[in-house]
Amino acid sequence: MPHITIDGKRIECKDRQMILQACLDAKLPLPHYCYHPGLSIPASCRICLVEVEGVPKMVPSCQTPVRDGMVIHSKSPKAVANQKQVMEYLLVNHPLDCPVCDQAGECLLQDYSYQYGRSQSRFEEDKHKKPKKDVGLNVLLYNDRCIMCTRCVRFTREVSGTNELFVEGRGHQEEISIFPGKPLDNKLSGNVVDICPVGALLDKDFLFKQRVWLLKETPSISPVDAGGENIYLHHNEGVVYRIKPRYNAEVNTWWISDDTRYAYKAINDDKRLRGARRMQYGSQINTAYVKAIEEADAGLRRAHAEAKADGSLYAVLSPMMSCEEAYLLGKYIRSIDPQAVLTLGPVPTSGQNEIFKHGMNGKTTFTIQAEKVPNAAGIRRVIALLGGPTASLEDLAANAKVKAGWIVGGYLSNWVTDALKLPKGFKIVQDTLPSTLTDRAEILLPAAAWAEKDGTWENFAGKIQPFTAAVAPPEGTTREGDVYWKLLGRKGLFNAEDVRAEMGEPFASIKLPTEHAAQPAPEFVEL
Ligand code: SF4
Ligand code: FES
Fold it and tell me: What's the pTM?
């Protein structure tokens, strides 16, 4: 392993690693704009130039590989003068409109201006103004804030492979543009907002919604498909405002799909079910949540007793449930009827996997899974773990022996189609959005959305990943885990980690990422 010395500190590097990346890995900050670890390296912004002993001119640290014994200076008078100069040039035509810019608080132009720039502007001439552009369905371009780092252009060439963005003009008239009639509307388009180091590319959906320093960050997993993309939920005062990618080399690297990015809307949906209901003389009436749970339990026991045979109960385990919730529901239903049938709920798919390729070398850069639920694999694993009778939904519907059951939904949109067949008889339904099924449930228990609870999901590749609650469930709803916890007669609140320990391997050794530890947990109410 080569070693280099930078500003007097000796660090170990990987072979052929670039100086900048080696420093970033060693938590030694070096300014950089055009460099992004997921893209090619043009070395065009020049703010990362450093002095290397024995090399007559300064070199771009982002594009210069390390050599054993290299001695590097990023704080020498020459390096500092270059940083100040680059900052001054970048700000010549910048509108300095930080108070109204969405990027304020997470802007590299702001940060580096403070750390590496001058405190005062010497520019007295008129600034060259460029118009704002609507470049795509989700993205706005504030051209006069752009520093021409070309990260966004390289993204559309090298990751999405769709080539919508390009550099138009030259010199001070250079700007990012789209081709006529070809907007930025690929399914990864939102990533250009994340990689834009300044406030030039902004998400229309988040525009002017929140100041970023008010947002708290909770690591989570995408609920939109079986890919298991790693994400951060950004929320404030119990409301999720946006989703950002979380780097995971094995799953999604630096990127997420737009479906994942806007999945938070389902949490804030006005149509969310609130308040338990029960059927009385053919129509649903409001009831207290605790009472509804007691009646659900009594209804299942009654149906099982009347049937006078095991195998008369069932549970439809949704692929939106966490593995822990599915395990507890399975345990509970089998505690009444040891032969209760466990069934995986509908698994919607959409055609084939969508594969994105590098525009030049044709390598696959990102895949959007066709399976549009996050945990079908995990639910199959839990059903196998619990053993006992299982059936497909079709077979369950045709099974005249089953008299009552528990059905869980929690999908991001209406999942109850005309084709959905379910057994007749007493039904307890736990769901987040209204449907014809929730309308005809004997007991309706409004449930929590994924961002409001803890658990694990298994992706298409068998990777089991934990997620944790960012916000509390809205009033009138309860986390599924808490309901099963109570029905199993356990004290206190559902704890996903304890359930995983009970489930054994591979669940027992799943740990939350370390950053979870610092997260203040939302408050949950004991039933
Ligand atoms: S819009 Fe942003 S990402 Fe694109 S070139 Fe300008 S500063 Fe870079
Ligand atoms: S980050 Fe090195 S030249 Fe831009």
Answer: 0.94
pLDDT number for residue 519: 56
346 CA to centre of ligand 1 in angstroms: 42
Question: Kindly report the CA angle at 414 between 413 and 418, in degrees rounded to 5?
Answer: 150
Q: Please enumerate in sequence order all residues whose Cβ is within 8 A of that of 112, keeping only pairs 6 or more positions apart, or say none.
A: 31, 33, 47, 83, 87
Closest by CA position to 375, among listed 270, 223, 263: 223
Q: Running DSSP on this structure, what letter comes out for residue 523?
A: P
Identify whether the C-beta of residue 323 lies closer than 8 Å to the C-beta of residue 507: yes
Q: Is 428 in the pocket of ligand 1 (CB under 6 A)?
A: no
- Among all chains, which residue has been given the structure tokens 């345990």? 331
Strands 404-408 and 426-431: parallel
Average pLDDT taken over every residue of the chain: 95
Tens digits of residue pLDDT in 123-138? 888 888 888 999 999 9
pLDDT per position as a tens digit, 198-255: 999 999 999 999 999 999 999 999 999 999 999 999 999 999 999 999 999 999 999 9
Q: Given this model, what pLDDT does residue 516 score? A: 53
Phi first, then psi, for residue 95 (nearest 5°) are: -70, -10
How would you classify residue 238: left for phi > 0, otherwise alpha for psi between -120 and 50, otherwise beta? left
DSSP 38-100: TS-----S-TTEEEETT-SS-EETTT-B--TT-EEESSSHHHHHHHHHHHHHHHSS----GGG
Q: Please state the atom number of ligand 2 nearest to the C-alpha of residue 45.
A: 4
Ligand 2 centroid to Cα of residue 193, in Å, is 19
Rounded Cα distance, 2 and 14, in Å: 7
Query: Which residues face 203 on adjacent strands?
Result: 139
In terms of Cβ atoms closer than 10 Å to its own Cβ (0-12, 13-18, 19+), residue 262 is middle
**Confidence check: pLDDT of 517 > 60:** no
Cα dihedral sign, 476-479-484-487: negative
Confidence (pLDDT) at 131: 87
Point out the ligand 2 atom lying closest to the alpha carbon of residue 60. Answer: 2
Task: Return the ligand number nearest the Cα of 23.
Answer: 2
135 in contact with ligand 1, CB cutoff 6 A: no
Q: Which atom of ligand 2 is nearest to the CA of 61?
A: 2
Residue 113 token pair: 């201006």
Whether the CB of 150 sits within 6 Å of ligand 1: yes
Name 383's Cβ contacts closer than 8 Å, sequence gap at least 6. Answer: 317, 326, 330, 342, 344, 390
Quickly list H helices, 159-284: 191-195, 258-261
Which residues lie below 8 Å from residue 93, measured CB to CB, with a gap of 6+? 127, 128, 129, 130, 144, 172
List the residue whose alpha carbon is closest to atom 1 of ligand 2: 32
Alpha-carbon span 130 to 144, nearest angstrom: 5
* Amino acid found at 35: Y
